[in-house]
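Anaphase-promoting complex subunit 5
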Amino acid sequence: MASVHESLYFNPMMTNGVVHANVFGIKDWVTPYKIAVLVLLNEMSRTGEGAVSLMERRRLNQLLLPLLQGPDITLSKLYKLIEESCPQLANSVQIRIKLMAEGELKDMEQFFDDLSDSFSGTEPEVHKTSVVVFWITCLHGPSVSEGHQPRLTKRGLFLRHMILAYSKLSFSQVFKLYTALQQYFQNGEKKTVEDADMELTSRDEGERKMEKEELDVSVREEEVSCSGPLSQKQAEFFLSQQASLLKNDETKALTPASLQKELNNLLKFNPDFAEAHYLSYLNNLRVQDVFSSTHSLLHYFDRLILTGAESKSNGEEGYGRSLRYAALNLAALHCRFGHYWLYVLGQKRSDSYVLLEHSVKKAVHFGLPYLASLGIQSLVQQRAFAGKTANKLMDALKDSDLLHWKHSLSELIDISIAQKTAIWRLYGRSTMALQQAQMLLSMNSLEAVNAGVQQNNTESFAVALCHLAELHAEQCLRKALDTCWTGLLNDVAERVKPHQWKGTKKAVVLQAQNQMSEAHKLLQKLLVHCQKLKNTEMVISVLLSVAELYWRSSSPTIALPMLLQALALSKEYRLQYLASETVLNLAFAQLILGIPEQALSLLHMAIEPILADGAILDKGRAMFLVAKCQVASAASYDQPKKAEALEAAIENLNEAKNYFAKVDCKERIRDVVYFQARLYHTLGKTQERNRCAMLFRQLHQELPSHGVPLINHL
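Structure:
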């Protein structure tokens, strides 16, 4: 093909063996691939009624539309697609193309003459009752319905466009087209031989499967690299397909580099193609290229105004409308890349409520359900962080759901469910969060996407997977957790943004290494950072970590102000689970300070939410603390009542040990069996004491020992 390209270097109508017909007012041109499609259509018209089965006819009809609208593909790929639909017809097409490519130039000319004759004469082959219509009739019934008429029209227009484009060519252009056809055929034959060799050399089923996957990838790359310039309809189909894939399932779209290469090829032949600039903008967002995305976005609106499309559809205000949308999109672009000097809503939270409410009212007034729903979602998110009650937030989301289902806004349905999952997680209701996350993951997309693509790679899908992974981790469901992480790593890991939990994890590691001063400095910096960001949930978590640091440093009195501040924040913002965890920590502080009766009364307030919605480890900690408080309170009881309290404590310790065993926390199991051995010794149960003592000894030898027990009395 290189020689063809060099010989046509100064010819504006030819590139890489492709004959352009746009200069003659026709929005299509002849390529070797389209000649092969013409051969397929011609063979279909020549095939009799009983030559192929009904199922084969259906598959061929389903194949034709993407062949006519899609970009050029290799000949071997075309053979494969036709063979999957109708092997007999694939053989006929292959023979016709072989005879034409290995023959002479007059064979190709005769082929187009025969196509022209099919539209002329007293009894033309292509008309309403011709054999071509028979293929649709067999698929849809005895009469061609109005809904399927465009498919027949598209075939007829394709034939007519190709015939007109070919008739406008000079002899030299016809010769170069025939040379390109020969090269196209030779490349296809070479690929077919390679495919056959690969199948013959494969030894087992696993190797065959692997080689087939590699072959499929190479074919797709070849299609991208060797396809010539697209016609207007092919370009529109390509852009709409890739835009839909970027929106719904990015993994099935072309890679950023391959897609940009195709877009550059489109823009080389039509620089004013506005839609191609916009898809280039979306593609550059995938790789976080702020310069190229801004460049493409500005070019899109420049071309949109130059075409005059906006002024025609919107009257005299069309240009101004386009410029307003350009400014809005540019502001959204800068916000996405973190250029917050242009961001207003995040700077004044009080003003943001007013602006969002105003935007929702305006959207409802002008009948814009998509914008209205987005505004409601933003309001719900802000009010959740402000501590509004869950029932009011759910009522607002219910109103937005009515808009989604009424207008079939499937993307916003997913966002709404993900929002509900996050709200229930924020308020500590893990059961409700689990239900919403599983509902989102099990839902099929309501939006029809090419090739059966479902919306399983959206941001809401990633959020649901993250919440589900956390919920499974809390309940120690390892297999389910592995499944969630596999989904994240394979499909949507790039969408998960980092957050401040990294600092907390580092502090926990330092604390476990007994580096208390370093952990305290890190937690103080993190606390200031979270307070500046007004991230209440993280502020409470850091306060609890600081309080635990003080306990380990034998300073429980200093931890009390931290705990009271955390409790006040969790109550103010209605974070029920964090409030229960804070009460649990307060009870532990009271136990250390020697007031176990008050600690036990506090535990009765916090134990129910923890057992209902808490993590397995938190449940074990709560039951262990209850047992400690029961033992400490029993010190002042008389002997019968004390024995009863110790028996109850042993039962709670058994329950705590079961929870710790689920998460394989051997260090805490060691503490539990030590405590049980002491209790059994007090009750005079020697056999049970010895069993617990033996288990403690095994675990103590297996595990390292750090520090001293915080409670060393019964």
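The beta strands are 14-15, 18-19.
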